[in-house]
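ugh ok so i messed up the first submission bc i forgot one of the chains. this is the corrected input, ALL of the components this time, i swear. 691 residues overall. if the numbers dont match what u have on ur side tell me asap before i send this to the collaborators (the ones from the other lab, u know who)
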Amino acid sequence: MMTVEPVVRVTGVAAPLVRDNIDTDLIIPSRAIRMRKDGLGASLFAAWRFSGEAGEENPAFVLNRKPYRHATFLIGGANFGCGSSREAAVWALKDFGIRGIMAESFGNIFYTNCIANGLVPVALARTVIDRLAADIERAGEGRHSFCIDVESCTVRAPDGSVVPFALPSLYRTMLLRGLGMIDIVLEREAEISAYERRGIADRPWTVPARREGERRQ
Amino acid sequence: MQAAEPPRTLIEKIWARHVVSEFGDGLSLVYVDRILLHERGGGIALAALSRAGRAVRDPNSVFATMDHVIDTFPGRTGAELVPGGAEFIDALRTGTAAHGVELFDLGDERQGVVHVMSPEQGIVLPGTTIVCNDSHTCTLGALSALAWGIGTSDIEQVLATQTLVIRRPKTMRIRLDGTAGEGVTAKDLVLHALGTIGAAGANGYTIEFAGALVRDMSIEERLTLCNMAVEFAARGAIVASDGKTFRYLASTAFAPKGDLWRRALNDWRKLRSDTDAVFDKEVAIDCGAVGAQVTWGTSPEDVLPIDGGRIPEPAQCRDPVRARRALSYMGLAPGAPIAGLPIDAAFIGSCTNGRLDDLRSAAEILKGRRVASGVRALCVPGSTRVKRLAESEGLDKVFTDAGFEWRESGCSLCFSAGGESFSPGSRVITTTNRNFENRQGRHVRSHLASPQTVAAAAIAGRIADARTVREGNR
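and heres the new structure output, hopefully the right one now
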C-alpha cells in the first residue's frame, strides 16, 4: 500500500538556516496544530516569519526572501528538529514545500517522522554544511540548485560536487517506494506472534493487571 | 567452569529481551509492552487506523489520558479554549471507544499528565518497553523501563503491530557523584548536567543515570531527572531499579499482584548493568559544588548557578551566534548577575515537577508568605491524584493563601496547553523543561528552575536563592 509519494530525486533551491538546536516548537507553534496534516505551512516558523500582532512578514527572515520563499530544501545545524515529538512539524515543512533537510544532526524523533512522511533527512558533517551554506552565498540568491538523490544517497551541490550521505536501506526503500511502515512490519507477522507467545510465557507479569471489577472481557 | 557471558548494560539487557527481528543498518523491530496516548496525537493515530480498517493489536496494553488540550480551570468542562481543541478531545474519546482502549478522561480520578499518571498507576514497570506520542516519555525510565517518545505515524504502527522500528541504542552512563548542597534538587542536578554536556550532547544515546546521588534520589526525583533526558537529545534514559522502585510500585493499581508480583521481583532484582559492562560513552559529574540552578537563555543548556551566576559573553558559549540571539530574545546583557532579575510570573507543575514532593517543597517556602505584588503565580498539579493528595495535606490552602492560583491537572502553561499563554513579553520562572522561544507565549522569556526556586522567586518578585527567602522574615 502506498501511503506517501515516492521520493527518488529532488532538485531545487536550499534556504540556509544554519543554527543549532532548532526545535519543533519553532517549526510549528503548539497553538497552530490542527487535526489536519495540510494547511500548516502558513504557520511554519511563525514566530520568525511574522512579527507583531498583525502578523506582518519579517523581511529579514530567510524564508520571506526571494527565492527561498519557494525553497525545496533547508540547510540546518546540529540537532535540527529537537524537542517536542509533534509530527505536525514535518507536516508544516512539507505543506510549505520543503522536501529535504540537510543538517549536521537531527532530533531522533523528528528524523523518523521525516521518513514516515517522505521528507528526506540528510545528515552531513559540519564542514560540509558550512561549505554548502557558503556556496549559496557565493552563488548569489537563487542562482544555485541542489539535488538530493535518494537512489544513490548523494547530494549534488551547486558547484557540481557530489557528497554521499548515510541512510539505512529500510528507510531508503520506504522513501523510494512511498511505503508505510505498517505494511513492512506486518510482513514479519510470524515473528511477532512467536515473540508474543514466548514473551508472555517468560514474563507473564508484563501483561497489565487490573483491579477487581475492571477487567475487560 | 561455565563460559562467562559478556558483561552487558541494563539498557542492552532490556533491549535484547524485546528484539523481534532485525532490518540491518542498526535498525531493529522491538516489541512494545505499553502504549500511552494523549489527546494531541492519540486520536489522530486511532482515527487513521480506523480509516485503514485496522485493529489495535492488544487494546489491554494501551492507556489514554487527557492533558495537552484540556484546560486546567476549576470546574472545567471541555476544550473550547484551544483553537480546534474540541476535535482532538472528541477524536481520542471516539477512537478509544471504537478500539476498546482504556481512557482516563476528564472527571476520572486517574486522569493526569501522562508521565505523572502512568507511574502512579503502575502502568510503567521495570524491564518493559513503552511508547507515547510525546517526547518526554523518557521520564518513565526512572522506573527502569525503556521508554520512547515517538510521532503519530509510529504510534499508529505500534498500535497495529505492537512493535516499533528503532535504532539500536548507543549507551551513555552519566554518573552524578559527590555530596549535593542543602536544598539542591534533582532539577538543579539535571540542569547542571545539561550545562555540562549540552543540548545535543547525548544525540542518539540512551542514558543510564547512575552514581551516589541517583541512588539516594526518591522515585519522584528520578522521574524529574529522566524527564530532562530529551533535552540532551537523548533517545531515552533509565535508572536501575532498587528497593525504592519496588516499594513505589507495590501499591499501584496496574502492577502485578500475588504470585506474579513475587516472580516479577525475582526478575527485576537481576535487571542492572553488569559491573564490567562497557558503555559507548561515560560522563562523570562531581556535583559537590553544585547549588540551585536557573537557565538564562532559550535552550535548556543555557544554565547558571543562581548564587554568583552572571550572564555569559556569547563568545564563551558553545554556539556564539545562537547565544547572541538568545540574549536578545531574553532581554539580557552579558556580565549581569542572574539573581535579582525581576519576574512577571511563576509556574509550578508539568511532567518535570508536578508531583507531590515538588508541591510540598514549594509549599514549604510559601507557607506564611505572599507572592510579590504584580507577580502572577500558578500551581498546576501533575495529576488528579497529586491534586487530591496535596489537598488532603492542606497544600492547596498554602498555595492560595500565598496568592497562587490552584488548578486542575494538565500540561497547562508549560506550552500553550489548554489555550492559555503568559502575557506577551513577560518574564516567567517555571518548573517546566523547555525555555524555547515563544513556547509559553508570544515573546515570553522562560527561566527553568526547581519548585523551591520558583516559589522563592514568586515571593521575592525576582530570581532568588531559596535559602535567602527561607532565612528572611515571614
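quick check: Chain B has 17 helices and 19 strands. that seems consistent at least. The longest helix of chain B spans residues 85-99.
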